[in-house]
Design goal:
alpha/beta, two-stranded parallel sheet, 300 residues, elongated
Length: 300
């Protein structure tokens, strides 16, 4: 007699291994059938699957099963991603519970810990995918740091460089002073906070007792200033464009430049330009060929 309710755990855990062992999910590269392939966007090994994974993997699974039934040689290529920085953070938190740091362990021992975590977390993810009923070709599972994949990444990188499509340059980055590494925008949470305007007088070179007053919310980056910008149509400063001011507390002269970035209605209408510490200032610096000056060390 059928149960009144469908007990998924009893049914699915029984039949999935049967499907997998039967070879129902496998592709056959030697087949004469028309191929159909989906490369699984690899989930990070840093944690568990979330609802977004469940949605996208379900859609991919529908497609791959549909084409498999239509007679295509269907390959759904499974894999996981290393997510290096996020993985490092997880492992370092675990070490901190033992009053240890990666520097105390040394590079080789720390890497052993990272690989051990990858095995544990990666296995959890593939277990969850199986529980979802996903039908990738598990014999072809890959990890983004497998040697073959790393070689492919290096080849593509070199090809793009040779074609002039990627280049080396100085850019602003998100720096984590704890992990001592750059991190992507995806790893950053931005928070708006209430700040204050600080007004600083910059003495104009060659004009006794004349100052240009800068309004800033970031006085701590003043020593990285490379210019003071005013709006080209601001009559208050028109005669100062092209002159220089003395950066307060230093003996360094910086130019007064005209740029649309300066808002005449905001503050004093004159803004300090610190290309190494503000994304807008970085763009102004590029337009006026200002060299960025980093005033912070790796410990921030």
């Amino acid at each position: 007699m059928l149960n009144k309710n469908y007990i998924s755990q009893d049914v699915e855990q029984k039949w999935y291994p049967v499907w997998e062992k039967s070879g129902a999910f496998k592709c056959d590269p030697q087949s004469s059938k028309k191929p159909y392939t989906i490369m699984m966007p690899p989930p990070n090994v840093t944690g568990s699957l979330h609802i977004g994974h469940a949605l996208t993997f379900t859609l991919q699974d529908i497609l791959i099963r549909f084409y498999r039934m239509k007679g295509y040689d269907a390959l759904w290529q499974p894999g996981t991603d290393h997510a290096g920085i996020a993985t490092q953070m997880v492992v370092e938190r675990e070490l901190a519970k033992q009053q240890l740091s990666r520097r105390e362990l040394g590079r080789e021992k720390f890497l052993e810990k990272v690989w051990a975590w990858k095995e544990e977390s990666g296995n959890q993810i593939t277990h969850q995918l199986r529980r979802l009923g996903a039908s990738p070709d598990w014999d072809r599972e890959r990890f983004t740091m497998d040697e073959g994949l790393s070689l492919a990444v290096r080849k593509v990188f070199v090809d793009l460089f040779d074609q002039g499509l990627i280049y080396r340059d100085k850019r602003l980055i998100n720096w984590d002073h704890k992990l001592m590494t750059a991190i992507s925008d995806l790893e950053v949470e931005n928070h708006e906070i209430s700040g204050s305007f600080y007004y600083i007088n910059y003495p104009v070179q060659g004009a006794k007792d004349r100052f240009i007053t800068v309004a800033t919310t970031r006085p701590e980056t003043m020593f990285g200033d490379m210019a003071v910008a005013v709006h080209p149509d601001d009559d208050r400063y028109r005669d100062l464009i092209g002159k220089s001011v003395l950066l307060p507390l230093t003996d360094r002269l910086i130019p007064i430049i005209a740029d649309l970035h300066s808002d005449p209605e905001k503050g004093t209408g004159a803004v300090k330009i610190t290309p190494a510490h503000d994304f807008n200032d970085f763009e102004v610096g590029k337009r006026h060929k200002l060299e960025p000056l980093n005033i912070m060390d790796e410990h921030a």
